[in-house]
Fold:
Amino acid sequence: MAGLKPRPGILEIQPYVGGKSTVPGIAGRRIIKLASNESALGPSPRAIAAYRDAVTRIDRYPDGSAVDLRTALAEHHGLDSCQIICGNGSDELLSLVARAYAGPGDDVLISQFGFLMYPIIAHSVGARPVVARETNLTADIDALLGKLTPRTRVVFLANPNNPTGSYVSETELRRFVSQLPENAILVIDAAYAEFVRDDDYVSGRSLVESYDNVIMTRTFSKAYGLAGLRLGWAYCSPSVADVLNRLRGPFNVTTPALAAGLAALEDVEHTELVVRHNDTFRPWLSDALSKLGLTVYPSAANFVLVGFPTNSGRDAESADRFLAAKGIIPRTTANYGLPDCLRISVGSEADLRELAAALGEFMA
Structure:
């Protein structure tokens, strides 16, 4: 087996490690998981019912073209269904883009504190991840433009970004795309778009309709509460849609996921309830933690990035251990290059109050 070697780039991948779900040594205690930006209110009851009904049909292959869901997405967002691709989570779609447009000798451009999957995806196709610095924990368009070279093939930009919660305005996005070479493609990863209320924000739809080399990806994992089903979608030009359809698996989305996604999309009242909850408790959480002397960075998503003191015993690592002992799980961000921070999801009111009390005790 000594001669069996993977393709170049594979061994450079640092495997993605998601937010923890358990805490060793505290069996029997209720766990408060605020590590993965999951929905505080869970999925729509209609989505759960649709999932249960779909289980009776799992002896048959799913609709490989996801016609019903694409049609519903098109109607809901005012899009052309022929330009929508459904995937096994938006992660699959991001990987398909890299497979289609990048490879050995190419560059994949990402922002300094961008989603950790982006460099993994770049390495997986043998491309080189290139990092552009951020300013005030926000993607810097001038820095991104300065990193463009003839080798740049794909640009991944989470908007809002995970784990910082910051976003780039429509004006800045258009400034970037207007200077992006036609043989490079911008992927706007808008996983948290449903939570953004700011007037200068766009999810990416308008840019897709203006430029052939822009893709918008979305997910059902966050606002719709279907993280366990792995369901995402992309909106792109007809030519890009044709390419991605040639690459994706013929049955890449399961029957239960398609059914639950369709029902979740149709339950507008539940989605609005989820967003209103976030509108209330994201600022509540930010205010409560700021009063403890912690630095809470502005966020447009369903989480906040919290900065801790650097002195021993009050640092982020100590806070993480303290919270874990109480059964509370935030997300450490040292692997993002932010060792002094923790990312905290906007959970239920009860969970957030317990978190705030625990951090109050920690900081006392």
Q: What stands out?
A: DSSP finds twelve helices and 15 strands in the chain. The longest strand covers residues 152-158.
